[in-house]
Amino acid sequence: MAHCEKECLKCTGKYCVSKVYIFSTIQPENFKKISEIIVTRKYKKGQVIFFEGDVEDKLYIVNKGKIKIYKYNKEGREQILYILSEGEFIGDMSLLKKGNFQFNAEALEDTYICTIAKDDFDAIVTKYPEITLKILEVLHDRLMNLENLIQNLSTKDVEVRIASMLKAFAKDFGIKTGEGIVIELPLNREEMANYIGVTRETISRKLTVLQDDDIIELIGNKKILIKDESYLEL
């Protein structure tokens, strides 16, 4: 019972506000006011949160879990743009102007999402204008990440693409240990292949070669141990 209560607490609006970067300048005693306008919803693994073309009129905050932001290319293949985890958000462009989403969002695991309607968020920004600067910082980082993704996809060197992907995963989801960096993979093999624009067979084969070369160790389907960290700098 205590565990359930603890988990429920982590899915409240107040808890959600407390861990979002753009709200970091707000005093904790004011979190409750913001949490009162938050709507929280649970999405099952594989459930779509919104589709490309849907009206972008609210901020979506990942309270617990992970989501992928993706589009479909001209060949109909999925191209993952971002992976968002606890405390991160999407829908930031709607805070500047209402429009339509240019991508899709799907839960990678059972996920709790907090939403704040644009009109409500406008009122928050009016009261706490410093939030706008935080949003611009996040937009800058997102643009840099997209530029890196485009650069990686433009190279024909699959090794470089895989190294770049694992480097990003190590930064966002890795844990340093005495043996190396253990990465809790946010994507399955097919999604990893889509992320870097190769086939599932190619990435499975390349990962096996890296393991044979003692650069990585595959721990089931969900974890990778980076044993030779110099590989990430390809």
Total domain units: 2
Number of strands: 14
Number of contiguous helices: 8
Global shape = globular
At the fold tier of CATH, the topology name of the largest domain is Jelly Rolls
**What amount of the residues lies in strands?**
25-35%
Low-confidence stretches: 1-9
Please tell me the CATH architecture of the largest domain by its name.
Sandwich
Structural class, by secondary structure, is alpha+beta
Main sheet makeup: 4 strands, antiparallel
Explain how this protein is built.
This protein is α+β, with helices and mostly antiparallel strands and 234 residues long. It folds into two domains: 153 residues, Jelly Rolls (Sandwich); 76 residues, Winged helix-like DNA-binding domain superfamily/Winged helix DNA-binding domain (Arc Repressor Mutant, subunit A, Orthogonal Bundle), CATH 1.10.10. 39% of the residues lie in helices and 27% in strands. The protein contains eight helices and 14 strands. Strands 1-10-4-7 form a four-stranded antiparallel β-sheet. Strands 2-9-5-6 form a four-stranded antiparallel β-sheet. Helix 7 packs across helix 8. The longest helix is centred in the middle third of the chain and has 25 residues. It is globular. The protein starts with a helix and ends in an 8-residue tail after the last strand. The N terminus is likely disordered.
What is this entry, summarized?
This protein has 234 residues and is of the alpha+beta class. The protein has helices at 2-9, 13-18, 31-35, 118-127, 130-154, 158-173, 189-196, 200-212, and strands at residues 39-43, 48-50, 55-56, 58-64, 66-72, 78-85, 89-90, 99-100, 104-107, 111-117, 174-177, 180-184, 216-219, 223-226. Residues 1-9 have low confidence and may be disordered.
